[in-house]
């Protein structure tokens, strides 16, 4: 029998492109001795586990196990460890330098396009019929 294609194998393990956050690390996980049961549910992939972590007030890092779908949410007392079958990461990936640069360029373009010249008045205030500081 032929071995499954790598993409198929990764898909079956929940590791297909787009399902693992870009900042997540494979083969690394977190353990917290005070956390004895799965507290993030059983989810389809690491991306979903990260999103779940982000919605829980105490969660700083997550550990996802593709083989079972278990999503563990950890606070600041969790200890990083080598765990071969785990995928883990922070509650949110920090923006990359290129995405920050792209965002700044986009903001600059928006600012440049929204700057308008002051409207032409067709003359000075004396010509407009408006009087300043004079009693009628």
Give me some keywords for this one.
136 residues; alpha+beta; 4-stranded antiparallel β-sheet; 3 helices; 21% strand; disordered N terminus
Describe the protein in words.
The protein has 136 residues and is α+β, with helices and mostly antiparallel strands. The protein is built from three helices and four strands, in the order H-E-H-E-E-E-H. A hairpin with a 4-residue loop joins strand 2 and strand 3. It is elongated. The N and C termini lie far apart (101 Å).
Strand neighbour order, sheet with most strands: 1-4-2-3
One letter per element, helices H and strands E, the order comes to: HEHEEEH
Give the terminus-to-terminus CA distance. Answer: 101 Å
> Biggest sheet, in brief?
4 strands, antiparallel
Give the SSE layout.
Blueprint: H1 6-12, E1 25-31, H2 46-55, E2 61-65, E3 70-74, E4 79-90, H3 97-114
Brief characterization of the structure:
The chain has 136 residues and is an alpha+beta fold. The chain contains three helices and four strands, in the order H-E-H-E-E-E-H.
